[in-house]
UniProtKB/TrEMBL annotation:
Domain of life: Bacteria
Originating species: Gluconacetobacter azotocaptans
Protein's UniProt name: S-methyl-5-thioribose kinase
PANTHER family in the record: METHYLTHIORIBOSE KINASE
Recorded GO MF terms: ATP binding; S-methyl-5-thioribose kinase activity
GO process terms (BP): methionine biosynthetic process
Quaternary organization: Homodimer.
Protein family membership: Belongs to the methylthioribose kinase family.
Enzyme class, spelled out: transferase
Domain Aminoglycoside phosphotransferase, first and last residues per copy: 33-264
Pfam families in alphabetical order: APH
InterPro entries (alphabetical): Aminoglycoside_PTrfase (IPR002575), Kinase-like_dom_sf (IPR011009), Methylthioribose_kinase (IPR009212)
Listed EC numbers: 2.7.1.100
Length: 408
């Protein structure tokens, strides 16, 4: 019997789960309950007890920020499934799942109340020198270990098939990221008329259309690994000495470059929103550090698996046992494909966050609307060029330095 819980309901719910009540400690009446809902979809509360805190998340039967947009409740089921699948792969780079209630679609995880959301921290001018490296490690471990490089196809397809059922949120991704910005749709919006012409150019350029079509097919047909599916800077919590990836409700099988592209796309948005050169330098450094960490960790996992006669069915160890240079070339080819996907998905993330449905607040730090539109237009022009000309940049280092040049 699903119903949306208010603070009294949350208190009663937690008191009724012995392990959670014991974790919080003390009498339930003493628990402090705060709503911290920040994303577009769910209700989120932090509950502090005398001993410990927990984070409570509940699906709503609609989009949180748009109650007229009705939506099935299954997203916390997939987030719980993702945490169960990924936590053994990435350890403390994500949160520990404490409880899932399949009737109320309630997910309870450990509380990160000494952390801040990376996007908000970056907007305030903060610097977390280790965060991008940690996110790269998260993506490398999470994707390698759920790919056919790591285990036989029977095991991997069985694990990925669960997430093929995440149709509600995959539909959101297909519409909001991969389709709507490239057609006339009432969900698309932007404030500044200065963006009209670049938005129109993006829709009418036949080279962009061909590339977007190819990336739609890539997202929907390339079941390379289990993806987080919504890896933007609002899905990352940071403290001085800790980084966690949260909010895995969009988890689905897909191309690894989709996760990398969304993260880099959001760092590009932050770069274009930064007006001081120190902030721009940090944004570029974060892009390069993320990629280096992802790339090096992924390949190290692959090499280790090959040395230990890993039993993945793709790039099977037996093929390369006496051919180390062949393995190195195969790895380079594989990574070039991931790089190409990453650049295209990063461009598509930039576009959808500026002229699609779900915008990002990064540019709100520029109070002058004309100046803001100038920066947004420059980000859109870069994204358009990246999609129109796949040869414009072929490495993430070149992408970061071209973006830096384009910030003026
Ligand atoms: C209706 S959901 C809009 C966006 O919010 C989520 O965080 C995802 O990014 C989704 O595309
Ligand atoms: Mg989210």
């Amino acid at each position: 019997a699903y119903h949306t819980l208010d603070t009294d309901g949350i208190r009663a719910f937690l008191a009724g789960v012995p392990a959670l009540a014991a974790r919080l400690g003390g009498p339930a009446a003493h628990w402090r309950i705060r709503e911290v809902s920040d994303g577009n979809l769910n209700n989120v509360f932090l509950i502090d007890g005398p001993q410990c805190g927990v984070c409570f998340k509940q699906s709503l039967p609609h989009v949180r920020v748009d109650p007229a947009w009705k939506m099935p409740l299954d997203r916390t089921f997939y987030e719980a499934a993702y945490l169960r699948e990924i936590r053994p792969c990435v350890g403390a780079l994500t949160t520990d799942i404490l409880h899932f209630d399949p009737d109320l679609y309630v997910l309870v995880v450990e509380s990160l109340d000494r952390h801040v959301v990376l996007r908000r921290g970056l907007m305030a001018g903060g610097d977390w020198p280790d965060a991008a490296r940690a996110v790269g490690e998260f993506v490398a471990h999470g994707t390698f270990r759920t790919s056919l490089l790591a285990a036989p196809f029977e095991e991997i397809t069985h694990r990925l098939d669960v997430f093929s059922g995440n149709r509600t949120l995959t539909r959101i991704t297909v519409d909001l990221i991969l389709t709507d910005p490239y057609r006339d749709h009432p969900r698309n919006h932007w404030i500044s008329p200065e963006l009209d012409s670049i938005a129109a150019e993006i829709r009418t350029d036949p080279r962009v259309r061909r590339r977007v079509g190819a990336m739609q097919a890539r997202f929907l047909t390339c079941r390379q690994a289990l993806l987080h599916g919504d890896l933007h800077t609002g899905s990352i919590m940071v403290s001085d000495d800790d980084t966690r990836v949260i909010d895995g409700e969009f988890a689905c099988p897909g191309p690894i470059g989709f996760d990398c592209g969304l993260f880099i796309g959001n760092l590009l948005l932050h770069l274009f929103a930064c007006r001081d050169s120190g902030g721009q330098d940090r944004a570029v450094r974060n892009i390069v550090q993320f990629w280096t960490s992802f790339h090096d960790t992924f390949l190290e996992l692959w090499r280790t698996s090959a040395r230990q006669d890993g039993n993945g069915d793709a790039y099977a160890t037996t093929l390369f046992r006496n051919d180390p240079s062949g393995l190195r070339q195969a790895q380079a080819d594989f990574m070039q494909d991931v790089t190409t996907d990453t650049i295209a998905f990063a461009a598509m993330e930039v576009i959808r966050r500026l002229v699609g449905y779900a915008h990002v607040p990064d540019f709100d730090t520029i109070p002058d609307l004309a100046a803001r539109a100038g920066r947004q237009g420059a980000a859109l022009a870069l994204a358009r060029d990246l999609l129109a000309d796949p040869g414009l940049v072929t490495s993430i280092a070149d992408l970061a330095s071209l973006a830096r040049d384009r910030t003026g």
